[in-house]
Each structure stands twice: as C-alpha cells, then as structure tokens.
Amino acid sequence: MKKIILTGGGTAGHVTPNLALIPSLREAGYEIRYIGSYQGIEKKLIENAGIPYDGISSGKLRRYFDLKNFSDPFRVIKGYGEARSLLKKYRPDVVFSKGGFVAVPVVLAAKHFRIPTIIHESDMTPGLANKLCIPSARKVCCNFPETLSCLPEDKAVLTGSPIRAELLLGDRLSGLQYAHLAADKPVILVIGGSLGSVAVNTAVRHLLPRLLPDYQVVHICGKGHLDESLIGTKGYVQYEYVDAPLKHLFAAADLAVSRAGANSICELLALHKPNVLIPLPAAASRGDQILNANSFAKQGFSTVLEEEAVTDDSLYQAITETFRNRASFIQKMEQSHLKNAVQTIVNLIEECAVHEG
C-alpha cells in the first residue's frame, strides 16, 4: 500500500486543507499518517478524523525580538530529530505539507531521506515557514495567480485550496430551518472566524437596525462573542461556532461577510457566494489578508472593505451593492478554473509517488 505523511499546524487553516484531502487519498489507496506538534490545534482535528497522529517538538522562527528566540531553535532541532526517526520508521512514498512551523522539520527530514514533498501555500506571498521549505519541495501549490511569480517556475502549480467535500452538499431549506429563518427574505452569513473578530462582529451588530428590514442575518461570531442583548431579535441569529450544519447555512446564504483568510475565501469561491471581505489590517498581521482580498476583488469574486474604512454607511453600501450585483459575482466565480483543487493536488501526489517509486 502507498504511504503518505501529512503535516502542518499552528492554526486551523493549516489543517482543514489536509482534512479535505483525506477522503480522496483513502480512495486512491493511501495509508495516511499525520505529523504535527505535541498539543497543537491539529492534534484534536486529525485524531477526530481517525488518522494516526505523531507529535514532534515545534518552535516558532520569528523575525522580531523575543526571548523565546533563544530557546525555540533547540525545539526545532529536537523536532528535526524526531521527524527523521518517524520518517525512517514509516518510510512514506510522499509527504504533503500545509505549512506552519511544525512542518519545517518534517520537510527537511523528508529531504534527508529523498522523500518527495509537495507543499501548499495558502496566502498571496509565502510565509517564513514555507520559504524555508520551498527549496526542499518537489512542487509548491498555491491559491492565487499572483503567487506564481514568488515561486520557482519549475515547482509552482496554481491549484486553489482543497475544500471539504461536505461543504458542497448543503441544503438551503435545512439551513433556514436550523436557523429558524424565513424562506422569502435574503440571508447574510457573517463569518467571524473560529476565534471571532471583534471589529467585524461590532460593525455588523451596529448595522442591524438598517439591515433587518431587508435581510436576515446569520452571525457566526466566535467563542465567547455572543451578544446576549440581541438574543431573540427577529431575523438575527448568532452562534459561537457551527460544525456539521455549516454546509446548510452556506446553502441558505445569499451573501457572506467575512475576514479574508485564504481558506475561508476559497470556500466562498467554491460555493459561488457573493461576499464582502473585511481583511485583517496590516497592523495586526503580515498583511496577507489584504493581499488575498485584493486578488479576489481583481478577479471579480469579492467586494473589499478595509477595516479602517468600515462605517455604518460604508458597510451598508458594500452589502447592498454586492447583493444587487450578485449575479455578476456568481458568474465570475463560476468561470474560475480553480474548481477541483482536491483532485489536482491528489494527481500531483500520485505523480510524485509513482515517479519516486
């Protein structure tokens, strides 16, 4: 049986694309194992999916001063030794890395054993972990046309992001019933992310008096971010987190308001959902969400409203104009060729495994 090691961690965004690949990899006959950090978010997600999991030591490589900069290199060295032991034990045919600092020792260990590695970069420009891994990779997958110029020409492949197949199986009526909403009024789905976004949550709630006469709002606000004063508001429903029913809420939505994390916006693209993106500002990140959002706007998939420009009037205008022009957004998304990232990436994995074999 063919063997594959999946790796990546630190955030859910470094894990969910791997989870999206698992059903197709199983179908293709792969024995799958996962290498992540000892207690990262990836451990629970992967074990819940029934995949054997091994933890290794992980340290973050920072571009700024931090006392941990003195200790983390030793954690990385320890992780590299652990990764080498695991790869020697399991002898996979191929490694697939979704990024994050835990992946660096795994990719470097794979290079030591000449095991072909494919890595995936979600954002417009590669993060530091993937920059360290690219020289050791056979192929580098990416989500945005603009990213191709940042990658070695002989390695770069524009694939899009693997999307969980179940998200494509939502039912609109089931979503409306789950949220106790009416079928004759458009639905806005607000996605604050797994941790929630205070800025987005606050802006949307402040706008509710102007939105609710014409729209219904489903608000996924993040753990600890429910507003109890709004419970029972007609046409507005809020959740800290939604798991299995999320596909039905997507199906019920006519428009989405979201941050611009690469996985989130690629899901909106795959589902052909017109959207207003409020990217995380550069002051709170390395600016990748701004680049992601602007790329989607340039391709005709999204309306972008930078957080610094969010007011009641600007957000209301962005929502109403996007809804009014939703047919144009849907048409552009339907024309995108990044429709089957899972199969494209599995094909690359097969090519590397066969070539090496």
If you had to describe this structure to a student in words, what would you say it looks like?
With 357 residues, this protein is α/β, with parallel strands linked by helices. It is built from 13 helices and 13 strands. It has helices spanning 16-27, 41-48, 72-90, 103-112, 128-133, 172-179, 198-211, 246-252, 262-270, 288-298, 312-324, 326-335, 341-356; strands at residues 2-7, 30-37, 53-56, 94-97, 117-121, 139-142, 156-158, 187-191, 216-220, 236-239, 255-258, 275-277, 302-304. The strands form two sheets. The chain has a seven-stranded parallel beta sheet, with helices on both faces. Strands 10-9-8-11-12-13 form a six-stranded parallel beta sheet, sandwiched between helices.
In short:
The chain is α/β, with parallel strands linked by helices and 357 residues long. The chain is 40% helix and 16% strand.
What would the keywords be for this entry?
40% helix; six-stranded parallel sheet; 357 residues; seven-stranded parallel sheet; elongated; 13 helices; alpha/beta; 13 strands
Topology:
Layout lengths: L1 E6 L8 H12 L2 E8 L3 H8 L4 E4 L15 H19 L3 E4 L5 H10 L4 E5 L6 H6 L5 E4 L13 E3 L13 H8 L7 E5 L6 H14 L4 E5 L15 E4 L6 H7 L2 E4 L3 H9 L4 E3 L10 H11 L3 E3 L7 H13 L1 H10 L5 H16 L1
Parallel strand pairs: 1-2, 1-4, 2-3, 4-5, 5-6, 6-7, 8-9, 8-11, 9-10, 11-12, 12-13
- Class by SSE composition: alpha/beta
Low-pLDDT ranges? none
Enumerate how many helices there are, as a single number: 13
Major β-sheet strand ordering: 3-2-1-4-5-6-7
Largest sheet: 7 strands, parallel
What is the residue-averaged pLDDT?
A: 91
